[in-house]
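Thread: Modeling a multi-component assembly for a lab meeting

Hi all, long-time lurker, first post. My supervisor asked me to bring a structural picture of a complex we are working on to next week's group meeting, and I have zero experience with this. I have the sequence lines for every component (1133 residues in total). Could someone generate the structure of the whole assembly? Inputs are pasted exactly as I received them:
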Amino acid sequence: MSDRRRTRIARLAAALALAAWTLAPAAVAGDGGAIAIGIPLEPPNLDPSATSAEATQDVLYANVFEGLTRIVEDGRVVPALARDWSVSDDGLVYRFRLRPGVRFHDGTPLTAADVRFSLDRARAADSKNPLRDLLQPLRAVRVEDELTLSVVLERPVAELLTYLGWGNLVILSPASAAAAATAPVGTGPLRFREWRKGDAIVLERNADYWGPPALLARVTFRVVPDASTALAALLAGDVDAFSNFPAPENLAALSRDPRFAVVVGSTEGETLLAINNARPPFNDLRVRQALAHAIDRNAIIQGAMYGYGQPIGSHFPPHDPAYVDLTGRYPHDPARARELLRAAGYPHGFDVTLRLPPPYYARRSGEIVAAELAAVGVRVHIQNIEWAQWLEQVFRNRDYELTIVSHTEPMDYDIYARPGYYFGYSNPHYAALLAELSRSRDAARRRQLLGELQRTLADDSVNVFLFELPKLGVWRHELHGLWHEAPIQGIDVTRAYLDAPGDSAAPGAASRLPALLLLATVVGLAGLGLVALRRHVSAWYLAGRGASLLATLLAASVVIFVLVDVLPGDPAAYMMGLNASPEAVAALRADYGLDAPAWRQYLDWMLGLARGDFGTSYTYRVPVAGLVAERLAVSLPLALYALTLAVAIAAPLGLAAALRRGRRADAVLMGVAQAGLAVPNFWLALLLILGFAVHRHWFPAGGFPGWGAGAGAALWALTLPALALAVPQGCILARVLRAALGETLEEDYVRTARAKGLSERQALLRHALPNALIPVLTVLGLQFSFLLAGAIIVETVFALPGLGRLIFQATAQRDLIVVRSVVLLLVAAVVAVNFVVELLYAVVDPRLRQGGQA
Amino acid sequence: MSGAARRGVGPGSAFGAAVLALYALLALASLTPLFDAALTLNLGARLVAPSSQHWFGTDPLGRDVFAMVAVGARTSLLVAAGAVLLGLLLGTPLGLVGAARGGVAGELVARGSDLLFAFPALLLAVLLSAALGPGALTAVIAIGVFNVPVFARLVRGSGQALMTRDFVLAARAAGRGPLAIAFVHVLPNLAGLLLVQAAIQLSLGIAAEAGLSYVGLGAQPPAPSWGRMLSDAQTLAGVAPWLAWFPGLALALAVLALGLLGDGLARTLDPRAGARRAP
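Re: Modeling a multi-component assembly
Sure thing. I ran the full set together rather than chain by chain. Output:
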């Protein structure tokens, strides 16, 4: 191809691209509309240069932040903030020219000094950047003028331009770096607008973008934590798109649904049955080969992934040009597997533990792997663990035998040469190949080397290579421009647009005010109640109660601290993820204050609390008090709503049954109550969603619009969850009420009341009910605490950002400071409620007041 | 009033007993090799709708759902029963001490149970699974621990009311100590209430076990459990609704049966309930 022809083709392509730019917005109605995208995990924070969390990349990559280069959908590296570059002949100096006229979202212009700042920050000794180790060959970053800089290397790094396009090496403005975790300031086509913690992150169009502007006016990334919620949210229209849908079993039905487009692509995720090569019996090649022969990849892809996902025979993505198909290296052959085991000295197999992290592909593949290994005599014990445990036990301490995990980083074949990596594998030949690859810039030689790497891993049967994780895109038919392939972690929405005006859920402004108002109301009411009670109980009694309350809380704080402290799993390791160096983790630990002795940490916590300071969340990097206030604005109204509904269910049921006690109606009513409490609330929640959100669009399937959207909308969103919680609780309450009334109605004083001519109804309401209230109040108090903290499963089903989910999430992420403070707060709430209940006892039953001996 | 009701064996408790017996039978039957075959993976027969061959259909891995429900019954009943036993054995004496002693001892019991009960249940379950590994025994402890304050507080709250009654005053006048009074005179009067509560806690325990295994903290796979079956079934509700119906129904039926049986027992065992029915 002649140079001129090539230029012509390039020009044509450019013209076409330009046409596409101009045509695409024409198809967009109004201001471009808004969409909501479902993501499975909430980002722990919004600083992509200081966390390896995939969720952070999903939201921010290419949308809010850009690097010198970037990766596009087909995996190529193209210029981004760097207009162009040149490389010295020895491959040691990269000279970048920046695009002129680029501004950060805060209005400051992008300069070479900002780039140097970002790269130096990423490779500094105390850096928390997961790619820090990859930047070690960098000797210096030199600013030549305002818009020109050079990166000087100690040795050639052929992959440098690719690394610079990854989401962790984006450029941020120095002024914003300290607050980037909560207020990211980048250069991208979208800017950060709002983060409703536990629920959603909202981005909006950056009108001052240097390139073609984003086509959508607003994009909301909504956290949809589990697969069943995902389907409901999609069907109910709460979410417009999933870049990677978490339930492959639904794709067949979804692709038949004219409302949705299903687009299956590939990711960079090699899914492995990882083997601890350092631990017997797996240090024997024959045993590892036996495992490979025992596994039927296609059965796993069919059984766990419903046919989605490509089989792999080594650690390399099939869509890469350098891929070598090695899936035939160890065909599924149980007889051969048994033979190899016999030869290795295990004629009767052995017992082994398979530790599975939370993702669905791991848990589902695990069951099939266990069954297939059992068929060749290897007895597998499955242990499902959280990510934090996986990171500590499997990844860091290498305390495991088998595990299943997907390695989603691109070009991550270097992990097989890392000393101390959790595979426990070491092969000097492999390391030598890798070193040559890093030096070599000759395409043909590189390809040869990459093939050799793949073959070496297969020969050594380091792990059982299962399948390449698919990217299962599902979105509304009117939505276009989302990526079909995922060569890098991220959900690029910059070219996404809608055919028709979007009717996507508008983001409500979250406000902290309602939470504070609510708290104030509750505290005020409690205070008023106390003043009213003063007539009934003595000051001494109250003072005594107050002192014992305080002692309880102090005891609780010690218990909580110890319990939370012994949780296995390190918060710093969790934040840093798979690529982190031990130094980076240690730096973060010091940052968190986790290197201090335990008593010191406890003392700091207590002193902080005494000052009203709950501390700062490890993951969110915001004050814990604010986090809790936001969640309380959901949980407290939900608990009160559910309790009200429960009483509304219980009172008529219990009273009616008691009036007709011993008769058929009593048995029927109590039977109904029995049936009602027999329905587990998460099951009821699911039925309610299917019935009233998916079939009939009366209620949202999940999520919470925030009180800023109006009290009506907020309460509407809480109705189904409150109902799911209230039905079983109301039925319990009805039974307790009925049982208590049954007792009191037989008392002599009630009999007397009846004898003096009161009707059964009057006797019940005036004489029996007040005395039956003691057990009812006890249970009501218990239920309130249960509803406040225990609604977690229902919160999960409805994707509500409540306290329960905060605890669950904080525990999973080992955000210990949040766990501690929230638990202490809940303990305080329960203790206070019980205190009030006991005071009410005293009002209800005057005998308990005498001498304050209650 | 019918003779059956007078003897305290109403149709409800008879139904409850029958269902429980059926579950027990199923749980026993699930120990036989017949069920092993039904529980092995068979990808050729995945997601088969209910039929004469597979009464409850099959799951995504081709296992027979009826067999899984049967084995699930075993897990569920054992875990809930263990948890109630734990709660009764520890909670009742604590509550009695609290009711009898008042003062410091009573205060300690009350605040101690506050402390325990105030702990978010799931956090404790997570902690326990982290320490002991997730599994059925962990579930028993995680659920049972929360039964302790339930019984303790019930006994304390109702026991206190009884402590001011005439028969207690009489016993005190006769020289009995407060603890003796609590155990000898107060406890029998609480039996009915305790039984009703035990029935409630047992049914709650079954539901809680399902909840724990629903979030993955209960019995570990491949051992079937109702909660995990339900969570696995959710995403398949549109494709294979039977996966969600049968474990859910089995769960609700078990809870219902226990509740009805508890009711019947309460009526039979409570001496005053007998008096009530006298003409």
